[in-house]
Amino acid sequence: MGKIGEQKMARLDAVGEDVILGRIADGESIRTLTAEYDLGFNLFYQWINRGKGRKERYEAALANAGHAYAARAVDTAQNVSDPAEVNMARLKVDTDKWIAGKLNAQYDVRQRESTITLKVEDLHAQAAALIAGAVGEEAIEGEWDSLEDD
C-alpha cells in the first residue's frame, strides 16, 4: 500500500473505530463513509481487516444496521400522508426491507423452497409395521366361505 493509502487509513484510525462502526450500525452506508473520508471501498475493507477483531465488530454493526433499516421502513410507511407520495414511499419501504433482510436474517422475508422426497416402499414398510404393532397376536386365523344370495 502506498503512502497516500496509509494516510487515508490513518484518518480512519484518528476518527476511531467506535465512531465509524456506530455510524454503520445506525444505518449509514459504506458509500457515504468512503465518500466522506475520501477513500475507496478497497482501502475501507483493508482498514476493516487490519484491526484485530474489527471484522467481527463490523459484521455485528451490519447486523444492527438491519434493525435501523427495518425501523426506517416502518417509519416511512406510517408517515405517508399525501396519496401522491404513496408509490415513492412504497419503493423506499421495499428498498429498506430488502437491505434489512440482507444485513440481518431476522428480516429476510423471502419464501424458502422445500423439497420432500417420499419413497412408496418406505411408506409400505411403515404401514406394515404399524399394522403389525396394532394387530399383534390378536389376528384371527381361519377359512372363509363366500356367501351367495339366492
Report the major sheet. Answer: none
Total count of strands: 0
Q: Tell me, what's the shape?
A: elongated
Average pLDDT:
86
Terminal CA distance reads 105 Å
Number of structural units classed as domains: 1
Number of helices: 7
Q: Percent of residues in beta strands?
A: under 5%
- Rg value: 31 Å
The top level CATH class name: Mainly Alpha
Poorly predicted runs of 5 or more residues: none
* Helical content band: 55-70%
- CATH architectural category: Orthogonal Bundle
Please state the structural category. Answer: mainly alpha
Put the structure in a nutshell.
With 150 residues, the chain is mostly helical. It has helices spanning 3-15, 17-25, 30-36, 41-50, 54-78, 86-103, 120-135.
How would you describe what is shown here?
α2 (17-25) runs parallel beside α5 and α5 (54-78) runs antiparallel to α6 (86-103). With 150 residues, the chain is mainly alpha-helical. The model has no long low-confidence stretch (mean pLDDT 86). The longest helix has 25 residues, at 54-78. It is built from seven helices and no strands.
Task: Record the SSE blueprint.
Blueprint: H1 3-15, H2 17-25, H3 30-36, H4 41-50, H5 54-78, H6 86-103, H7 120-135
List keywords for this structure.
single chain; 150 residues; mainly alpha; Arc Repressor Mutant, subunit A; elongated
